[in-house]
């Protein structure tokens, strides 16, 4: 009887075909899986699966090519924007995205990020910011908040000796080559919908050839933060969002 109900007209939701059936390696409660899903859904809904190329560097997203059923390539740590630049210039008709964490994009990849955006490369950069090096041991990252503890700042980040947290997205928004820059999250159903709309806009903007789009997603790292997923989301709301406020930072001028 149940088999008779499984018909296209009765389906409320199904997994997008742009995602593979591989079991994800991300920690339970991590935002990466949700970010992957909405990016894949956008590609599916736009009908551009065969026209999309993704670039994943080192970090928690190092195995992203296992989960997206699109053409993917790996990049050295921090070099995803440079690799994406080459791909988009060789294949200007393609949709090209990078998927990077804060330790990758805002540390070893700062120069690549800044110069790709300054040149106005027609790519989408998806930036996952969890304020820590999630994969390699929970070390302090450029985005680690003042007073925030990590494996390399066990007493909390001290501004005097360790410098200030870096708002790389605000820096990118000031560059003439950046076209659409926004900061979102994926910790509630409402925020997931907003983040998905932002990613879809950024994908669509690529065809205008007006510059680089960057979508930052502030996420948790419950394993690195030594919290439960519920605690991590609450801590993120109370601490990350005040310093990294959600919303559009740079929107196209009509």
General description of the model:
There is one protein chain. The chain is of the alpha/beta class and 254 residues long. The protein has one domain (16-250): Rossmann fold, CATH 3.40.50. Helix content is 37%, strand content 16%. The protein has ten helices and seven strands. It has helices spanning 2-5, 32-46, 80-90, 102-108, 110-119, 159-162, 168-173, 189-205, 222-225, 229-243; strands spanning 52-56, 71-74, 95-101, 124-129, 178-185, 212-218, 247-250. It has a seven-stranded mixed beta sheet with strand order 2-1-3-4-6-5-7, sandwiched between helices. Helix 8 links the parallel strand 5 (178-185) and strand 6. Helix 2 (32-46) packs across helix 8 and helix 4 packs across helix 5 (110-119). The longest helix has 17 residues, at 189-205. The protein is globular, with a radius of gyration of 18 Å. It starts with a helix and ends with a strand.
In short:
The chain is an alpha/beta fold.
Key phrases:
254 residues; alpha/beta; Rossmann fold; seven-stranded mixed beta sheet; globular
Distance between the termini: 54 Å
Number of helices: 10
Fourth-level CATH superfamily: Thiamin diphosphate (ThDP)-binding fold, Pyr/PP domains
Give the C-level CATH assignment.
Alpha Beta
Strand and helix map with partners:
Elements: H1 2-5, H2 32-46, E1 52-56, E2 71-74, H3 80-90, E3 95-101, H4 102-108, H5 110-119, E4 124-129, H6 159-162, H7 168-173, E5 178-185, H8 189-205, E6 212-218, H9 222-225, H10 229-243, E7 247-250
Helix pairs in contact: 2-8, 4-5
